[in-house]
Amino acid sequence: MRITGTGHASMRIDTAAGSILCDPWVNPAYFASWFPFPDNSLLDWETLGDVDYLYVSHLHRDHFDAAHLRNFVSKKATVLLPEYPTSQLEDELRDLGFTSFVRTKSDEVHELDGGLRVMIQALISPTDGPIGDSSLWVEHDGIRVLNQNDARPSDLSRFAELGHVHAHMLQFSGAIWYPMVYELPDSAKRAFGKQKRDRQFDRTWRYIDDLKADHVFPIAGPPCFLDDELWQFNDIFGDEGNIFPDQSVFLREYAKVGGTNGVVLLPGSVSELTRESIVTTHPVPVDEFFADKVAHLEEMRERKRPVIEAEKASWRHPEIDVLKELKARIEPLLEESIYLAKGVGGPVRFDLESYDGDAIESIVVDFPGKQVRPYADEKVRYRFRTQRALIEHLIFIDEGDWVNSLFLSCRFSAARIGQYNEFVYAFFKCLSEERLQYAEGWYDEHERSVEAEDTQLGGWTVQRRCPHLKADLSRFGMVDGNVLTCQLHGWKFDLPSGRCLTSVGHKIRAERAAE
Ligand code: FES
């Protein structure tokens, strides 16, 4: 089996029974904020895109690059489709010209021609990707690989039970706006960033340890930020609170926990994988490449400047009345929302900067009042500050997912009162009837189904499944005093009261175990 690195989360897998191109991403994503790092735009995409199968793990724009799929991927390719609750991924791929689909069933092995076997595990909670993220398992001729991508299943047992995995590709770096965009003192931001960076690595080690593959490939990040306004997010300033460590840092950190089987793929690197061995060749030596990282980024920044400028020029739509349009789009959704609106529980304010950055228009999405209206000098749960042009553009393109556009762009700042509130982001990724209904239904079912089963932890009897995303607390739970931490995403719970200390709602059932 041959694995060719094609940048970020993308790879091409070649077997004697066919080739699979995964998540090709080349064009900038999220308001021209994210670019693939290292640069993959100079690869021979005509050849790479001439494949038998295409796998797009999910709709995040650093995995689903519509322009690239349209121009460079053979429309003869059969799409291996994750089993998602909405048809949006299939619809968008059909719009791009793909006609052949294998609609996989989550967690079921599918036999393709020539003895190629694949399994896609689809994660479908409102907090997984843009409502849906997935991992691809491939087997041919006794060689097994898991492209876990940036999916976060509660464990990897379904893959492990299919037999020893030879290569495991997974995310290790950050892919979020926290904590950089928060209006906090630099020291606090650094401390939160460091915690986050450590947690990302811990989670990666846990997954690696779960699967015990022969070879581990760090993929799916970090992106690079080439706009001068975002340049500080690149991990080139020796800041231990930067959440975007690169593959060379991964190797260093992995070595500290005893990891010796890491394989870094640069765009154009090729790994020949057998059951017994792996031989990888690179277009340039990996060490040298990362030693020259700053020069690589600076060169890319100059080369991509016109692309960023062209994108920026397309955002302004001064004819749009933002308040009126947001009212028309969001109020009907607020009206329908039970769980998300209750979960947010307060007003969320958007401060929109005019084109010259001087004037501010302040709009509130009032979740309890089910209204979009001008800000009325009130306390709000969250406040976001961004350019009016970005919101104009979201309205102009009728964007139904502001996480997959505005928030991931990091082109905003934020402040909040109280804890992180997942419902705020869940709501703003569900700005369409279909998505909102799905999320509401999911929370409804989830509330009812948090299982009655218990487990014993540190002198406490607690519900076995984490109230967040159902991780098994007998594996992921850690009790320190009266606080339980679920190590999957780091959420904390006060056991005597059951209160979640990380997010509103999400109460846990717990009582002291009988002596
Ligand atoms: S499942 Fe996310 S913190 Fe437990």
Automatic annotation (TrEMBL):
It comes from the Bacteria. GO terms for molecular function: 2 iron, 2 sulfur cluster binding; metal ion binding; monooxygenase activity; oxidoreductase activity, acting on paired donors, with incorporation or reduction of molecular oxygen. Keywords: 2Fe-2S, Iron, Iron-sulfur, Metal-binding. PROSITE patterns: RIESKE (PS51296). InterPro entries: RibonucZ/Hydroxyglut_hydro, Rieske_2Fe-2S, Rieske_2Fe-2S_sf, SCP2_Rv3818. GO terms for cellular component: cytoplasm. It holds the Pfam family SCP2_Rv3818. Gene3D superfamilies: Ribonuclease Z/Hydroxyacylglutathione hydrolase-like, Rieske [2Fe-2S] iron-sulphur domain. Residues 462-515 form the Rieske domain. The keyword Iron applies. This is Putative Rieske 2Fe-2S iron-sulfur protein. It comes from Spirilliplanes yamanashiensis. The lineage of its organism: Bacteria, Bacillati, Actinomycetota, Actinomycetes, Micromonosporales.
